[in-house]
Structure formats: structure tokens, C-alpha cells
Amino acid sequence: MILDEKDAEISMIQKSFGHQNANCKTWIRRLLILTLIIVLGFWNIASRICGLSRLLDGSNPIETAFLKSLETNLAGNWLEKYTAVPHLAGQGQELVNWTAQKFEEYGLKTEIEAFDIYLNYPLDNSLKLLSKQKNGTKLEFQASLKEDVLAEDPTTDGDDLVPAFHGYSASGNVTGEYVYVNYGTKDDFKLLSEVGVSVEGKIAIARYGGIFRGLKVKFAQEAGAIGVILYSDPGDDYFQEAKGDKAYPEGPARNPSSLQRGSVQFLSQSPGDPTTPGKASQGNVTREDPSSRIPKIPSLPVSFKDVKPILEKLNGYGLDCSKFGGEKWIGNLPGFNYWTGPNPDFSINLYNNQSYDIRPIYNVYGNLTGTDPEEGYIIIGNHRDAWIKGGASDPNSGSASMLEIIRAFHELSVQGWKPRRTIIFASWDGEEYALLGSTEFGEKYSKTLSAQCLAYLNVDVSVSGKNLEIQASPFLNHVLAEALTQVEYPLGGTLYDHYFEKKKKFGILGSGSDYTVFLEHLGIASVDVGFTNGRTDPVYHYHSNYDSYHWMSTMADPGFKFHNALAQYLGLVALKLTEPKVIPTKISDYATELGFYFNSLAEKVPEGWLKAPVGKGSLLDAIIKTKERLIKFDRNAVSFDEYTSTLQLEWDNRDLLPIWKRLRLAFQIKGVNYKLRFFERNFVFEEGLKDRPWFKHIVYAAGRDTGYEGFALPGLKEALDDDDLASFIEWVERIRGLARHLEHSFS
Ligand SMILES: *[C@@H]1O[C@H](CO)[C@@H](O)[C@H](O)[C@H]1NC(C)=O
Ligand SMILES: *[C@@H]1O[C@H](CO)[C@@H](O)[C@H](O)[C@H]1NC(C)=O
Ligand SMILES: *[C@@H]1O[C@H](CO)[C@@H](O)[C@H](O)[C@H]1NC(C)=O
Ligand SMILES: *[C@@H]1O[C@H](CO)[C@@H](O)[C@H](O)[C@H]1NC(C)=O
Ligand SMILES: *[C@@H]1O[C@H](CO)[C@@H](O)[C@H](O)[C@H]1NC(C)=O
Ligand SMILES: *[C@@H]1O[C@H](CO)[C@@H](O)[C@H](O)[C@H]1NC(C)=O
């Protein structure tokens, strides 16, 4: 790192942050530093015991300078730009160029990369309710499949609006009787079959919620349905017109015409181009039949206004859902009494015409090169594509926050600062269809990512409400918690206070955004952050025309304070990961979580399984031995964490050390950093999970039957769900092997 000697302020910043060697020649100075070491050492111990690390707030000059740059807030400007024109996957070239231009303007080494993806654009659709007549059928009602144009919300109007459709839905023209299937989960279809309601040959109508929408279509298809309609039930909203709340744009309730677009790809099989799992979709890549990853039956999203006349016809037909399903089956759509149907007098005609082709999508990358190339890099990513012209929450609130981080880093850079580790920013395309841009990137660069990438930080929706959510690999817990203490929550207190007021720990990553390939395919520690929509927030019109700049700027985040807080937070996390000499993690956090996950699943093992033979003993013995191994690993991890903290402390005060000790220290740090950079890779199991080999992480995966929601130790969890003892034993043995390996690696 080369410094301008004249720039005293930056020089001071750099020195205190440990980028520069200086010789101390006087004893007085040595004495001062010795005192400092003792004080810092004491502080370090004290902070661990009583969480006093917060006393150190703002003491880091780079972090302080970064936060100062964000006292200016331009998030609203960026958001307005991103939400003014359509930018469906592969479209919105103007925004690709603009993003690349901004990256360059803010000093990043920038590149645009295209992938060639098999995907659909909508051509035509219709949804008709037909009544049976003696001499044929009569059209009773035709759904508009359009959202109301609102004068005050400009991006709800124009001839460039994105139609109602599902990404990766099948074309088709089907007519049949229809049934209500609640959320369309695996359990919902199971219950319907138990009570004798058949979906075979019918059109299934499911409400959104609970699980990823593509799996609703998958389960309906498996149950023999010929088509699917998905609608947003107002009963799932906190604010409702039925409860006296006004609807958007007058108030916080759902606009009755809003409808949720979205992908119906089978996310939990594998994300990415469905014709090239595990491979980058470029040039001549060999493609395979995608039919196990996308639906064969057509589907359409509709508003509750459009589905009401259709569902009302089921009242009194089939079974009363409250009788067999209870409250869980009842929404709050006025006029519908939640009967399953079918009503033999009515049918629907669902017509869905999609154009499929291989089409280019565009990622934009920007590098902020670090001072120490051997130390690898981190990636911060956000997707750019949206289902609608707006996309103010999803995803462009995240795009605006990310651009603010880039702007603030640029302000540090012009003063001569560089991070120690390289920071790569990524603006992904095609996330909405199937995490396309990030997955293809991860598949293409898997080797160098495995070798060099320390962490992936994701921000998809940075603001849809006021409720901070953090889901992460425990490898990052330490920095994530520390940064929380340094950012103010826009409504008072710190983010730390806000987050831990309601939650005990960080969440588990499942799927549904771009971290998936990094964590679950490549074993790279990842985090996803954003302010989500909670009970006190106006209804978030997810994937609807009303997720607009107007909604965001008047209702969700006037003044863009939450966008700003997110930029502060994620930027600090990036600095904390890239600046320190020793990689700042506490692997004991991971060890503790592993023990917790294993013990909670072990408790669920059926009595009858425990005596099953495993090796020379029983399953019970194997479980006990695995627990012991995990406890020993935890103990070793605590000592290892103490060792790495000591190394960092010695490094911060290395001026005190004779040259040969300094060299030895540098060598020791290289060793631990190497180990830490690859720590998360320990969990990669090359053969992958049962029946879905793309998912290779032993500890975290997208829920097989939920898509979004993640589950820890999926091998064990699924074996329990499937009542599969042999598979359970196999996974216990695998985890025992892993625990033994970890215990030894960190002894
Ligand atoms: C984007 O940039 C490319 C390359 O400079 C150019 O060919 C293209 O016309 C630009 N597109 C738009 C919409 O600005
Ligand atoms: C960014 O950094 C990565 C990792 O070092 C490198 O592979 C890539 O080529 C760089 N991109 C640019 C545009 O410099
Ligand atoms: C069916 O009968 C009704 C009157 O009973 C008539 O209005 C209608 O046109 C007929 N439809 C067809 C398809 O013949
Ligand atoms: C859909 O199929 C019906 C017959 O089942 C036919 O009358 C109608 O024209 C078809 N619609 C389209 C758009 O092809
Ligand atoms: C595609 O395949 C052809 C013939 O096999 C080969 O010449 C060409 O280099 C390939 N292109 C790419 C981009 O791999
Ligand atoms: C879908 O639309 C295309 C283009 O308008 C048309 O050629 C095709 O026949 C349509 N498919 C169906 C099933 O109606």
C-alpha cells in the first residue's frame, strides 16, 4: 500500500488500522504501546464477558469515515432511476449500461458478462369462468388479469407493463372443474386426498403463502391437476379492507386488483438455467431436458378481485374446509366460504401462451481491488431484474443501498484508502426466474470461487418494511453482531437493540435469493439482510405493479432512512471482513450451532430406531459418539478463537516486536487465515443431498418441500420426514466423520 506522505489524516487512519509499518525508537513509545496492549487485552476479555465491545463504537477511523459519507443519502435518487423502466430478466439494457457506468464512475473495475438462458416471455393469457348449459357452456365471467391503473402511481400505467404470468410456466389451454387447495403445500394435498377430494383432472386454486410458489405447482401436478391458479388472499394480510383499513393508494391494505407474478421453477431441485444444472450456460454448453425442473401444466397468478367470482361458486360444494382442516384452511376473501369444490355446474378455462427461447441475461461486476491479493475477496451482490416496471422493494431497494455503499467506499478511495481484501460488487440479472445470474456465475467460476472467496453478502430487498431480518452462516455471526451495534435504527436505538429485542439469533439460510449457489453449492459463508414487511407496515405488494417508487416513497420508506441504515450496516460488515489482518470469525459460533442442530434432530429419532446396528454398536451409540465429537470440536474451537484474537492483537501492536517475531507472526497469521478461508468448505459433500446433487452443503439447504425456508442438517431432517432409517444412519455416520475431522483440524 502506497501512501501519500503529505496526507496526514489518511496516514493516521491507515496506521491505526495496521496497514503500515513504522519504527518506534523510543522507550517511552514502547511503554505506551505495552500499556495499550494490556488495556486492549483487558478490554478484549471484558468485552467477551459482558458484551462491552460496544464501548469501542466508532473507534475505527475507516468505519467512522465510511459512516460519515452516508450522512448524505442518495438512495432515493438511485431507486427512482431503477424503477422507471421495465427490467425483466434479460431486458432493461439501459439499466445494465447505467449500472456499469455508475460502477465505473465510483472507481470500480467494471465488466458486463452475458449468459445464454432458456427462459420464457409471456405472449397471451386468459381466464374464463364457464357455466354448464344443456346445449354447451356459457361465459359467466372473464378475469381481467390486469392491475388497476392509478393516477398517482405512474409505473402502474403505460403500454410497457409486464403482463400477469409465471416465470417457467408451461403453455397450455385447459378447461375443467376446479378445487380450492389452501396453500398448496405437500401436507395440504395429502389432507385433501385423505378426506377424499380429488384434484385429478381439475384446476387447482391455491392461495399464495407458506412455501415457494413453484412447489405449489409441482405438488398440484403430482396430484394430477391440469392447471393451477394462484391468488393473494387478503386474510393473509395484517391490514385488510374487511377490517376497515383503506386499500393502496389511500391506505395500508392490499389493492384488490394486485397480483403476484413470480417463478414457478422447482427451486429445491436446483436453481439456475433448468437446462444446464451444474454448468455455465454459455456458448455451446450441452443442454438437457428441463422437464424435471419446471412445470408441465399451465398456471396463472390472479388478484383476489378476479378470483372472487370464481371461488364463490364453490360455496356449499365438496367439503367445508373448516371441518377437516380447521383455521389453517380459512382465509378472508369476502363472499367465499372456503369449501373445496368442485361444483359440477362450473368450470374454468385457463389459457397461457409463453414463448420459450435461449436468451441473453446480463450480470454487471465491479471490483474494488484490495492491497493483499493473496487474501482473496468477498462479494456483495444484489439482483437488478424485477417482475414489474417498478420493483421498488424487490429488488431495487437493494440496488439503491448497494450503490450507496459503493459511493461511500469511493469517497474513502479518493483519499487513498484501499481495503485489504478485494471487494467485488455484483448486479445480478435473472434472479427472479431461478437465481439465474448468480447461479451461472457460481457454476462458471466454481474453482476460483472455492479457492479465493471468503464470503458472499447478499441484499435482495433492502426495504419492504421496518423489520430487520438477518440470515447467515454462523461463520459470520461475530462481525454481523458487532456491526449491528454501530448503526442507528431509524426509529431509535441501535440496530442491535432492534434486532435482538424480538430475536435470539440470526436465521438459517434457505433459498429464494442469490446466496444459494455460494453457500449451498460451493460452501462459501453467506449472509442475506434486509428490512422486511412486518405487522405494522403497509401491505407489501410483492411482485405487483404497486411495488413502485410511489409506494416506497410515500408509504414504506419516506426519506429512504431504512435504505440508508441498510447501506451503513452492510458496508460495515464488508469493512469488518476485509480490513483486519486476521479473518475475524469465531468458529465456536459455528460449533455451537452444529451441536444445537444435531441435538434437536437427535431428540426426534423414533425409539424403535435407536437399537439399529451401526458399525460395532447401535444407532444410539453412534448418536452419542457424534455428540461427544461435536462437544470436543466446540472446545477446540473456543481455544482456536482465542488464538486468532491474540494473533490480531499482536499484529495491531507488532511495532513492539523484534523483526524475527514479526516475521513469525505474519507466518502464523497466514496459516490461520488459510484455514479460516476454507472453513465453510468443510461442509461441502461432493455427492450432494439425496435426489438433488446440486445442493452440496451438509448443514444448510433450501427446504425440499418449502423452497424458501431453510433447514439445518437436511440429510437427517429428510430421513426423519421420510421415515428412512437407512438414510438416517448414513447421514449420522457422515456427520460423525465431519465432526471428527473438525475436532482434529482445530486441535
Ligand atoms: C448499452 O451499451 C452497449 C455497449 O456500449 C451499446 O451497444 C448499447 O446500445 C447500449 N444500450 C442502451 C440501451 O443504452
Ligand atoms: C475482479 O476480481 C476477480 C478476482 O480477483 C477477478 O477474477 C476478475 O477478473 C476481476 N474483474 C475485473 C473487472 O477486474
Ligand atoms: C343455448 O341455448 C340458449 C338459450 O336456451 C341460447 O341463448 C344459446 O345461444 C345456446 N347456445 C348454443 C351454443 O347453442
Ligand atoms: C382454447 O381451447 C378451447 C377449446 O377447449 C378453444 O375454444 C379456444 O379457442 C382455445 N383458446 C385459444 C386461445 O387457443
Ligand atoms: C462451439 O462448438 C464449435 C464446434 O464444436 C467450436 O468450434 C466453438 O469454438 C464452440 N464455441 C464455444 C463458444 O465454445
Ligand atoms: C401462442 O402465440 C403464438 C404467437 O402469437 C401463436 O403462434 C401460437 O399459436 C399461440 N399458441 C397457442 C397454443 O395458442
TrEMBL record:
Region (Disordered): 241-298
Composition skew (Polar residues), residue ranges: 255-285
Record flagged with keyword Transmembrane: yes
Pfam families per the UniProt record, alphabetical: PA, Peptidase_M28, TFR_dimer
Keyword Transmembrane helix among UniProt keywords: yes
Domain Transferrin receptor-like dimerisation intervals: 627-742
Domain (Peptidase M28) ranges: 363-550
Membrane-spanning segments: 27-46
Record family assignment: Belongs to the peptidase M28 family. M28B subfamily.
Superkingdom to which the source organism belongs: Eukaryota
Domain PA: 174-242
An example Gene Ontology molecular-function term: carboxypeptidase activity
Keywords: Membrane, Transmembrane, Transmembrane helix
Protein name: LAMI_0H17062g1_1
